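Reply to dn_fold:

You asked what the input looked like. This is it:
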Amino acid sequence: MTTANLITIDPEILSGTPVFTGTRVPVESLIDHLKAGDSLEDFLEGFPGVQREQAEAFLELALDAALSHARAA
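and this is what came back:
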């Protein structure tokens, strides 16, 4: 899954807040739910428009970015 298929940034959707493509669900909400102790299952139940593949791909993307940043430091 490409980033373009995963995240949409459009000024017409939530004023440009990054959302899962095809939804109005901010990607940040997944991180917020996980930080609060919710499981991925809980998040997906609360946001049925987000596909599991999207959520997992976003988490992989976030992990890759964190690891790249750590290696560059």
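The two ends are 28 Å apart (CA to CA).
Hope that clears it up.
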